[in-house]
Amino acid sequence: xxxxxxxxxxxxxILLLIAMSxxxxxxxxxxxxxxxxxxxxxxxxxxxxxxxxxxxxxxxWQINIQHIRWKAIISYGLALAGMxxxxxxxxxxxxxxxxxxxxxxxxxxxxxxxxxxxxxxIWVSLAILGLVLLFPFDQASQSLxxxxxxxxxxxxxxxxxxxxxxxxxxxxxxxxxxxxxMFVGMLCLMPIALFLGMPAQVFEPSNFVYFIALAxxxxxxxxxxxxxxxxNLSALSFGTLMSLEPAIAALSGFVFLGEQLLWTQWFALAVxxxxxxxxxxxxxxxxxxKK
Length: 291
Description:
- It is built from 13 helices and no strands.
- It is mainly alpha-helical.
- It has one domain (8-290).
- It is globular and about 50 Å long.
- The relative contact order is 0.22.
């Protein structure tokens, strides 16, 4: 671990991979819950339980409220709320991997905005190619719902805001920022969930345990790890590396939900992974040359 601490970029990459694996594994669980419970209920409880778990682990009561920069916390929380609700609304209508592919347009736009060197554009272009190949087009086993695509694109816009807001100083530690941001996001979604109706079956032990698992896998763990990674990654690196999300999501959909992939989509996964590895390598090389 001490070796990794001396190489913050590598440590950030490992944390990001764990976060993405956790997030996309939870996507399969969320898609199962969506068939049983309202989407807003799932989204609101995910953030509520996640924030409570982090509040206990990181002792939220010990922070100095006067040091909190609420503008950064609120923007981060709004981004989380939008990402959660819009993404779940999208996977209700379209396959998991395709939803994440369209959602990724958000962080990809951030990566393009920060691209400066020729290699940056090469890796981002490869990521775009992979995303295009992920789309099923006329060979897809099921057509793409335009409303589902719109929800995914909206989630992508919130994802872009999430990257930007996550890099802004909040006056408290990264884990406390995640905890407070998730609570703000929950405050945005909970009134809507209650207004639309929250089934009492949610709180039955046999069901509630799945919501706790979703909160850990989809919020508490990945958002904390991503916040730590954001401290040691540029917006370009983070945005390009997040292109692995559609690949992991597609694999999760294939393994857990039986969603079939075309050969072009398997090739797309290889292209996206190559782009992420290339971006990581050239970014690290550039940093070493500056020393």
